[in-house]
Specification:
By secondary structure, the protein is an alpha/beta fold. The chain is built from 9 helices and 7 strands; from the N terminus they run ααβαβαβαβαβαββαα. 44% of the residues lie in helices and 11% in strands.
Length: 297
């Protein structure tokens, strides 16, 4: 009986841990076990590792390290962005704009906010899988405080025009709509395509480690300086008092190393994926042609 070789083709769901990432994190699961909030040598060693990881994650998206909040994953990042911003901005409006094809973690928060009396506009996408800029503009109201649209879709792969929407938000602010912010879920994009928060002009951006060959259980939220959020987890001073709880230093280190490798190897990885895609499509076309010829005969 011939053995069947299993081939994994679901990197949008999760990726295996890179051996280099594993090697980077292992010391912080063993001998370098300090609490990053402690003032002694063990704690300061852990704090230095957290700081290095934060710098690498920030570099991946061209942000400042103090704009990165480390979290448990993309879902927590989306929760903090949407709920945290809305709760902070409630005095200025109770209207959110999103799309019909967002990740469940954004859809779920918007549904929850709707039950609390918020109004949510869910924009359609068209045959090309994209949101139209004119639809975004038409949906903006005086009481709109947040636009939340994903950068790359996890199922169909379309890349939304976030840069143009970011420019639209800046124009709205210049016209006096000061309390309007833009959040993008970049979990499927960061590390795979170039992502620059200055180019996108977004105010918040969600990241996840396990999409770029790091372990599950770690994510981050970019929060532009000056954007106020209500903390969703309280009871500690960690993450500049935005997310209480003892940090997982090992997972942060792993995320930092994965971000560094993704930044350095992005072009090489993209070319590899293109070659795999072309090989698959060529083989599939040849198979379909052969089957058509078989049935025709």
């Amino acid at each position: 009986m011939t053995s069947v070789r299993r081939v994994y083709l679901d990197n949008s769901a999760t990726t295996p841990v890179d051996t280099r990432v594993l090697s980077a994190m292992l010391p912080y699961l063993t001998e370098k076990f300090g609490n990053a909030s402690s003032v002694h040598l063990f704690g300061q060693e852990a704090r230095s590792a957290m700081d290095r990881a934060r710098r690498e994650i920030a570099s991946l998206i061209s942000a400042r390290p103090n704009e990165i909040v480390l979290l448990s994953g993309g879902t927590e990042a989306n929760n903090m962005a949407v709920r945290g911003l809305c709760e902070a901005a409630e005095a200025h409006g109770r209207h959110i704009i999103t799309s019909e094809i967002e990740h469940p973690s954004v859809r779920g928060i918007c549904d929850a906010m709707e039950k609390r009396g918020w109004e949510v506009t869910r924009l359609p996408v068209y045959d090309d899988g994209l949101v139209r800029i004119e639809d975004v503009q038409s949906a903006i109201r005086p009481d709109t405080v947040l636009i939340s649209l994903m950068l790359a879709n996890n199922e169909i792969g379309t890349i939304q025009p976030i840069e143009e929407i970011g420019a639209l938000v800046r124009e709205e602010r210049a016209r006096g709509h000061r309390h309007l912010w833009l959040h993008t879920d970049a979990v499927q994009a960061a590390g795979r395509i170039p992502v620059d928060v200055e180019t996108l002009q977004c105010d918040m951006l969600s990241l996840s480690a396990h999409k770029i060959y790091a372990p599950k259980g770690t994510g981050a939220l970019f929060i532009r300086r000056g954007v106020r959020l209500v903390s969703q987890t309280v009871g500690g001073h960690q993450e500049r008092e935005r997310r209480a709880g003892t940090e997982s230093v090992a997972h942060a280190v792993a995320f930092g190393e994965a971000a560094r490798l993704a930044r350095l190897e992005m072009n090489e990885r993209a070319e590899h994926v293109r070659k795999l895609r072309d090989r698959f499509e060529t083989a599939r076309s040849a198979f379909l042609i052969s089957q058509t010829s078989l049935f025709a005969s």
